[in-house]
């Protein structure tokens, strides 16, 4: 009986979580410009309109550039941090790691306002894509470290030691032995950081310059009722892209676990 209640709760939770997402493609292919039932007919007009809106293309280019650079920088820093934390203990190790992971528990609005004060009042910098990238690195780095910590923790240090015993330098052993073994975790980190940056609205709203990112552009469209079906179409594409990237990231994560010969304790999916 208790198992039945648990299954019912899980089912209701999934319906509550995913039902709004399922409405996106439903109204994206609806012929009416008003988001309401009953549906009036099937159309692909709203998707076609996405290809003719130059402002949308510019916002998409900004978001892609920011997301790619963020994922590269955050993953590079994540590799360095995970490498350091998986090695021998050093003074302040837990405190430093806890400080880096702090953005996971802080409200994003607090981080956005704090960074805005630092950028404008302390550093006196102009808001631009660079400020958005730096902000996204701050919130993406903890996720990268969390993923890569698992990848490095699964490694047997004897592999790298054996390479050094055979004449390789410390860097050579890391590049030729350790890096290929954690490569699935690196790919997973890149994809997750890319998704985080592409979907972020709060930080971009506070720190973007004259060229808005895609989420900020979508928010601007909500002021116009006739643009809502276009938002639904765009949201459908973004959800499909996010799910695809998450599936790929989970594939590489499980591949890394399988390569290490360990039991999978669960991941994104």
From TrEMBL:
Naturally occurring in which organism (per UniProt): Rubellimicrobium mesophilum DSM 19309
Transmembrane segments: 60-84, 96-119, 131-155, 176-198, 230-252
Keywords: Cell membrane, Membrane, Transmembrane, Transmembrane helix, Transport
One Gene Ontology cellular component: plasma membrane
Parts forming coiled coils: none
PANTHER family for this protein: PUTRESCINE TRANSPORT SYSTEM PERMEASE PROTEIN POTI
Matching Gene3D superfamilies: MetI-like
Record flagged with keyword 4Fe-4S: no
Protein name in the entry: Spermidine Putrescine ABC transporter permease component potC
Membrane topology summary: Multi-pass membrane protein
InterPro entries: Bact_Polyamine_Transport, MetI-like, MetI-like_sf
Keyword Cell membrane (UniProt): yes
One record GO biological process: transmembrane transport
């Amino acid at each position: 009986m208790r198992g039945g209640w648990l299954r019912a709760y899980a089912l209701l939770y999934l319906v509550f979580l995913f039902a709004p997402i399922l409405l996106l493609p439903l109204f994206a292919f609806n012929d009416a410009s008003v988001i309401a039932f009953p549906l009036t007919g099937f159309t692909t007009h709203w998707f076609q309109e996405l290809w003719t809106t130059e402002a949308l293309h510019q916002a998409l280019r900004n978001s892609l550039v920011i997301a790619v650079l963020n994922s590269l920088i955050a993953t590079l820093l994540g590799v360095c941090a995970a490498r350091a934390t998986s090695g021998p203990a050093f003074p302040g190790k837990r405190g430093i790691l806890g400080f880096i992971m702090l953005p996971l528990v802080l409200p994003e609005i607090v981080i956005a306002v704090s960074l805005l004060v630092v950028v404008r009042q302390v550093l006196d910098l102009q808001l631009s894509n660079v400020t958005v990238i730096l902000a996204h690195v701050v919130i993406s780095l903890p996720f990268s470290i969390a993923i890569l910590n698992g990848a490095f923790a699964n490694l047997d240090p004897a592999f790298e030691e054996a390479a050094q015993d055979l004449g390789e330098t410390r860097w050579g052993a890391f590049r030729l032995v350790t890096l290929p073994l954690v490569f699935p975790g690196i790919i997973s980190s890149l994809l997750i950081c890319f998704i985080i940056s592409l979907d972020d609205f709060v930080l971009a709203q506070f720190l973007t310059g004259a060229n808005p990112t895609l989420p900020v552009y979508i928010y601007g469209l909500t002021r116009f009722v006739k643009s809502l079906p276009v938002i639904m179409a765009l949201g459908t594409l973004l959800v499909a892209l996010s799910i695809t990237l998450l599936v790929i990231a989970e594939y590489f994560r499980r591949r890394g676990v399988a390569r290490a010969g360990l039991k999978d304790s669960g991941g994104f999916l």
